[in-house]
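Below is a filled-in request sheet from our internal design queue. Each sheet records the structural input a requester submitted and the sequence that came back. We keep these sheets so that new team members can see what a complete request looks like end to end.

REQUESTER: design group, bay 2
PRIORITY: normal
MODE: inverse folding
CHAIN LENGTH: 427
BACKBONE (tokenized):
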């Protein structure tokens, strides 16, 4: 389902909250999105004509519905999309180009300022499309800090887009890119997947979305989803860096100011009645879109060493730093093996709890109960120090970004199963 069809579906189900009074893009929309997990449509926004949507994919249920799959089968669906990519077809036109603006003024977009000490207004739902010199294509989310009428500062964590840009810069060339806003949840999850460098994430997006058609950009040699809401086209400027940040990231704490590349926007294309999608930084939508694609990766790695039932990155761990893995324990070492495999699969993971299959991993009280009754710290903890973790962990060393990790094996001791039996009350 594309973004617009999904909004219409939410509306038909009477789930979309319409805010009809005029609201400010500075803090007010962010505050409303923080107060409730409901999906919102802000119909009138100060300073422009465009409506703003927020919290749209802010729950597992809504993400599953957007992918037309049961919530229980989200991981299966994502795993399948990795092994069976479906490349979208090219269309000669699409609603995303109903309006073409070459005289760029980013102030026409309702770019939100979210938190008190953020460095400025930020586009938070932009998915950047780029291609390297050999034609390897990449999709990834990058926050865009508006720094001028036609320029953004772009946060590039050293991953694929960072590599593509550096290679282009080494040849003295700026890199053509396009930022897609409102491309649908299949596109979003594909963009947040760290597939290997030579994998075209549009194939994953096509497999997840079911229907996805691309169209050629107006001013750059790239393709974007034909039914997206808004696209900004332009280039990452070779040799230019500006201060980017502070910015409230997934943990709800401020990420630091860094020197980052500049995105010069040369053209904006959009639907006639484009709706601007916002993702509240540190909110459930941000956490789910970023964290969910790591779950199948953790599943596949842990599956190599134990019989895995389920994997979840938890809301309390900001959907990124904490995982719970449930296993059907067969051997005493299974829990510790699963801990090691989970850390291997998701290097940003800080803490992981491994539980037995009878624990509901989506219920924090159940998980804590398993720790209380099945875990002994001097025997079942795996502690690592001075290891690579997440740049978003405020306890990591600010220079080296090295930190510590802990794995908790909260599975039952196989030799003493009767001690762990959950008492039942007979009928
Ligand atoms: C809402 C959202 C915002 C994100 N913001 C950034 C960002 O500003 N910079 C960044 O490098 N990654 C960001 N990410 C994470 C990347 O999109 C993600 O790790 C992606 O897999 C990287 O792709 P790559 O491995 O192809 O480079 C964000 C993810 C989400 C869901």
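RETURNED SEQUENCE:
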């Amino acid at each position: 389902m594309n973004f617009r069809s999904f909004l219409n579906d939410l509306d038909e189900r009477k789930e979309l909250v319409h805010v009809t009074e005029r609201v400010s893009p500075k803090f007010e929309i962010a505050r409303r999105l923080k107060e409730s997990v409901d999906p919102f449509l802000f119909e009138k926004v100060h300073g422009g004509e465009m409506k703003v949507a927020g919290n749209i994919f802010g729950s597992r249920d809504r993400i599953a519905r957007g992918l037309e799959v049961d919530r229980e089968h989200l991981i299966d669906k994502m795993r399948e999309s990795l092994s069976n990519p479906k490349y979208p077809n090219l269309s000669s036109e699409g609603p995303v180009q109903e309006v073409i603006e070459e005289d760029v003024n980013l102030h026409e977009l309702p770019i939100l300022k979210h938190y008190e000490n953020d460095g400025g207004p930020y586009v938070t739902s932009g998915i950047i499309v780029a291609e390297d010199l050999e034609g390897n294509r990449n999709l990834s989310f990058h926050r865009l800090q508006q720094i001028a009428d036609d320029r953004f500062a772009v946060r590039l964590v050293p991953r694929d887009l960072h590599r593509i840009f550096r290679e282009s810069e080494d040849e003295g060339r700026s890199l053509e890119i396009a930022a897609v806003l409102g491309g649908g949840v299949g596109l979003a999850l594909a963009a947040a997947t760290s597939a290997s460098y030579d994998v075209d994430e549009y194939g994953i997006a096509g497999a997840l979305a079911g229907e996805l058609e691309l169209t050629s950009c107006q001013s750059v040699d790239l393709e974007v989803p034909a039914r997206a809401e808004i696209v900004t086209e332009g280039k990452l400027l070779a040799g230019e860096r500006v201060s980017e940040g502070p910015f409230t990231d997934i943990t709800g704490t401020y990420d630091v100011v860094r020197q980052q590349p500049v995105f010069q926007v040369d053209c904006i294309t959009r639907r006639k009645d484009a709706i601007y999608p916002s993702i509240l930084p540190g909110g459930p939508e941000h956490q789910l879109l970023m964290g969910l694609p790591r779950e199948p990766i953790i599943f596949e790695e842990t599956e190599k060493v134990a019989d895995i039932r389920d994997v979840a990155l938890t809301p309390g761990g900001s959907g990124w730093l904490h995982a719970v893995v449930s296993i059907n324990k067969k051997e005493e070492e299974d829990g510790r093996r699963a801990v090691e495999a989970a850390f291997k699969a998701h290097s940003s993971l800080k803490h992981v709890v491994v539980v037995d299959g009878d624990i509901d991993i989506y219920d924090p009280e159940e998980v804590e109960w398993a720790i209380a009754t099945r875990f002994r710290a001097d025997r079942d903890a795996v502690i690592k120090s001075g290891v690579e973790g997440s740049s978003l962990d405020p306890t990591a060393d600010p220079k080296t970004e090295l930190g510590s990790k802990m794995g908790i094996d909260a599975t039952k001791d196989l030799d003493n199963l009767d001690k762990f039996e959950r008492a039942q009350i007979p009928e």
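SHEET NOTES:
- The first helix runs from residue 3 to 12.
- The first strand starts at residue 17 and ends at 19.
FILED BY: M.R.
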